[in-house]
Amino acid sequence: MKDLNSFLEELEAAFPDEIKRTDTLVAPHKYEASAVMELFERDERHPLVLFNNLVNLKQENTAFKLLFNAFSNIEKMAVALGVEQPVRKLIMEKYYQGSMNPKPVVRVNHTGAPVKELVWREQEVELGVLPIPRINEMDGGPYLTPIVVTRDGDSGRYNISWNRAMVIDRNHLGLWMSPRHLWSTFSKYEQRGEALPIALVLGHHPAFFMAGAGLTKISQDEYEVAGGVLGEGLRVVESEAFGGELLVPADAEIILEGLILPERRSVEGPFGEFTGYSGPQRISWLVEIKAVTARKGGAIISVFGAHQENLYAHMPIQADIFHDLKNIMPAVKDISWVDSGGPLNMVISMDKKTEGEPVRAAMAAMSLSNFIKHVIVVDDDIDPGNLKQVMWAWSTRVQADKDINIIKRTQGQVLDPSLSEEIAGSAMIINATVPVGQPYAMKAQPPESVINSIGKEIFDQFKKY
């Protein structure tokens, strides 16, 4: 059975330096937890930090815990997906294969569900008992970054998505929805004057969260996709507020059950976004919480908004883009987006056979996601995740007058602070590949045959010490 605790144990065994714990008293709603995370970020370290001694929004000591940076680098992604080596390409392939091999859910009763150890209903609900953080200075209030679970009552399909939710009062949240599956389902309900039942999962195994980030098809049941990514069927149990109408993850840490209310909106934000900037205040959707269930001492997984973790949490999207791009352009060998430092840049490595392929590959990538504004295409001798190599290729294989293309009036990303209009912007393609069929300077290095024989033999001796 996979849950947050099993992940933490595996992470500590595989990469002990990637997990830190503190028993110092911290008030997350006063930015104290995120201040610690900021200092790690400035030191260019990104460990998962588990805060064990907290006060809640009511200024009371609480047994609930809080953690940041569960998704902050390749090492944690590898542990979450069961990949032995922390290699970007292997992680993308493992995620995609899991998402394409769904597993049916496993229903359990209340006694077999750890998330039912504590239950609050209706008037007992008080979000103030939770240690919900404020992360960045401009944040509009304490914020959760949960997986939101919905079930389409017409089709029976479960959807999971990663959203942000701002605390308004003891039982209300302001929820932001991008115009994708959750938004579409709620729009249908709202047109009928109906509220949409939802569950906000505040903590679980990170692979469950990753499944909520991917570009899953509307035809797929995302509970089953989550099972495929987890490598085992997701254990589910009836919700307190909606019974069998909405099943919830049995092994979650904390779950908020509620309704997205029709014809109701709330001011929400600002909030620190993956771009590294505070996103604007918005008119968002209003959620009324009807029940809260939790493990004793359950933990909230919080994404460290506007920092490295926030970008790396998009790795499942990168995996989906990589697969789709390879289908369009088989010459593509690797891509780097989230680990390129972006956050709106992508590097594509390809085995170019003819001129024009790099531009086609870049345009295909842009068509797959409006997150991608700038694309650098390199040859397959360049690691797209190694910016020193990418900059070397850019410096030595590019002439600006013929290798850089500017595309005007493209659809941009609404969170891009450089946009002068609401959504329209421009894009750039940099072709940093060696010309085909023309003489070109040879990369200077010793002969590969000697490197792979005596060179490797002696080098491996040094690795033992």
From TrEMBL:
Domain 3-octaprenyl-4-hydroxybenzoate carboxy-lyase-like N-terminal: 17-87
Keyword Lyase: yes
Keywords: Lyase
Keyword set includes Methyltransferase: no
Enzyme class per UniProt: lyase
Domain 3-octaprenyl-4-hydroxybenzoate carboxy-lyase-like C-terminal: 315-432
Gene3D superfamilies membership: UbiD C-terminal domain-like (3.40.1670.10)
EC id: 4.1.1.-
Domain of life: Bacteria
Domain 3-octaprenyl-4-hydroxybenzoate carboxy-lyase-like Rift-related: from-to ranges: 108-301
GO terms under cellular component: cytoplasm
Coiled-coil parts of chain: none
UniProt GO MF annotations: carboxy-lyase activity
Family: Belongs to the UbiD family.
Protein name per the record: Phenolic acid decarboxylase subunit C
Organism: Pelotomaculum schinkii
Organismal lineage: Bacteria, Bacillati, Bacillota, Clostridia, Eubacteriales
